[in-house]
Specification:
Length: 339
């Protein structure tokens, strides 16, 4: 048995059995630790190893070489091989935002774009479900299946909005769009993930969204522009063509109303008359900011976009400590068990 000690801000020690992961041990001892997929894919359980030795059953898929070099590890895969100290940089509110399961009612469905459905879910009255803007929930389906969706609105105590991409083979999305009964009751688990605004920083922010990756960023921006409108913030939203910019009017209105907020839509397959940025969304960021030192960066959307952005931004001087992301990986058919 080894002991892991959390970082200096709220030191806590907990014992870790050789056979269990750091995440399983920490949760077993009642710590509020961030996690998502529990299988190395999403990076939500990323923490910095300050001292000690760990090993993995296989190389950590969510971490780039630069993140590993900066000392980051994935708690859901790591096994302790010596006493450890890990640094968890998370806001104190997370202690009161532990994931739990609850029923919700489907209140409204609305097509935001040709392939994006906004599903509004009604929270149980008086339940007090809270989350940090940017976090996500898992919808719990039959036979242990789950689907992860980011919460697109900031907390209002009554409803959650999800932006669901409806692809031809997407099983849950097609059911929700075409077959789900009106006022259906669904079960969800949340809030999940470590993708939320770090409000203790005053660095300028670069946000990068791909497709429905705009959902958590919309929730963050809504909160940020209300609370800290003077913090310099740039949003780059990458989609295929103009018809996919389903929040364009709202984002332009926010940019008009807030001089410190800049919005740049980036199209990968634009029409000939498109006058804005084109190409890969992370390359549009680098064209405007060849150096990203001194920034905070938030990325969400398709795994390939997140991976390319992470590597390129760290190569452009962004500190791995100031990089946050939600990679919209495809669902596993069953959820891995803790341990
Ligand atoms: C933290 C997190 C947050 C997310 N937030 C959102 C969100 O806000 N909005 C959103 O639209 N999505 C989001 N996703 C992605 C979403 O959870 C998945 O795409 C999920 O699989 C959709 O479920 P489905 O049943 O509709 O589609 P599925 O039946 O799971 O299939 C989805 C699509 O992926 C394809 N696919 C499935 N598996 C693979 C594979 N292994 N390789 C290649 N293609 C595959 C299918 O053919 C189909 O086109 C998020 C994912 C994560 C991890
Ligand atoms: S990578 Fe650890 S919870 Fe997803």
């Amino acid at each position: 048995m080894y002991f892991a000690r959390r970082g200096a801000d709220q030191p806590r020690s907990f014992p870790v059995e050789e056979s269990e992961t750091l995440l399983a041990a920490g949760l077993r001892h009642g710590l509020a630790l961030p996690f998502g997929c529990q299988s190395g894919g999403c990076g939500s359980c990323r923490v910095r190893l300050v001292s000690g030795t760990i090993d993995y059953p296989f190389p950590p898929p969510a971490l780039s070489a630069a993140e590993q070099a900066a000392g980051y590890i994935l708690m859901c895969l790591a096994h302790a091989r010596s006493p450890l100290t890990i640094a968890l940089h998370q806001p104190p509110q997370l202690d009161s935002l532990r994931p739990r399961q609850l029923p919700v009612r489907a209140l409204k469905k609305e097509w935001l774009a040709h392939d994006v459905l906004c599903l509004t879910l009604k929270l149980p009255k008086g339940d007090g479900f809270q989350y940090l803007p940017g976090q996500y929930v898992d919808l719990l389906l039959a036979e242990g299946r789950r689907r992860s969706f980011s919460i697109a609105n900031k907390a209002n105590g009554e409803t959650l909005e999800l932006h669901i991409r409806v692809t031809p083979n997407g099983r849950f999305a097609n059911w929700a769009a075409h077959e789900m009964p009106e006022r259906a009751i669904l079960r969800l688990e949340g809030p999940l993930g470590a993708f939320y605004l770090r409000e203790d920083s005053s660095r300028p922010i670069i946000m990068v969204a791909g497709g429905t990756g705009i959902a958590p960023i919309h929730a963050m921006l809504d909160a940020l522009l209300e609370k800290s409108p003077s913090r310099p913030t740039e949003l780059y939203w990458g989609v295929r063509s103009e018809r996919d910019l389903y929040l364009d009017a709202k984002l332009r209105a926010w940019a008009d109303a807030h001089p410190q907020f800049r919005y740049v839509p980036v199209l990968s397959e634009p029409d000939v008359d498109w006058r804005g940025a084109r190409g890969l969304v992370h390359e549009a960021v680098l064209a405007a900011h060849p150096s990203l030192a001194g920034h905070d960066a938030y990325l969400s959307g398709p795994p390939v976009m997140v991976r390319a952005g992470k590597d390129a931004f760290i190569a452009a001087g962004l500190s791995a400590d100031d990089l946050y992301y939600d990679s919209f990986d495809y669902a596993f058919e069953t959820w891995p068990q803790l341990g």
